[in-house]
Amino acid sequence: MNDSVTSNMMRALPAEHRQRLLHLAHEVSFEMGSRLFEEGGRADRFWIVRTGTIALDMRVPGRRAAVIETLGHNQLVGWSWLFAPHTWHLGAEATTPVRAYEFDAAAIRGLCVSDPAFGTAVTQWVGDVLAHRLRSARTRLLDLYAPYGSGSRV
């Protein structure tokens, strides 16, 4: 699992903004094997994992979906809700039973507009997560499909 500071909401957002965000959360649960979203679907919500793990995957023509990253405690699931056209770029599946905080994307985007400091903090947090996920996707796809892998050693 990734322990990156940028993907951990508890460390990435200032306490004031974190509390405002969590005030709008509601708790949800997913059974193992549940799909949270599919690549290309409408991104109208996002989650912060409380317990369990979620695999982010990417469709690969002619092959089964490639798992790009596995997310766990306090990590953000979903970034596509923040950036137009608000469609998922990856898929997500619960690999264990999951408990999470769920957020309505439109409500959070509205709060980002009405409170620029909050909006800047959330955008920076999600942007950092996005940059990390793109690097992870590149490395994972090279490991899976390039003749000599990514060249990185784990």
TrEMBL record:
CDD domains: CAP_ED
Pfam families recorded: cNMP_binding
InterPro entries in the record: cNMP-bd_dom (IPR000595), cNMP-bd_dom_sf (IPR018490), RmlC-like_jellyroll (IPR014710)
Ranges in coiled-coil conformation: none
Domain of life: Bacteria
SUPFAM superfamilies: cAMP-binding domain-like (SSF51206)
Every Cyclic nucleotide-binding domain range: 9-78
Gene3D superfamilies assigned to the protein according to its UniProt record, in alphabetical order: Jelly Rolls
Protein name: Cyclic nucleotide-binding domain-containing protein
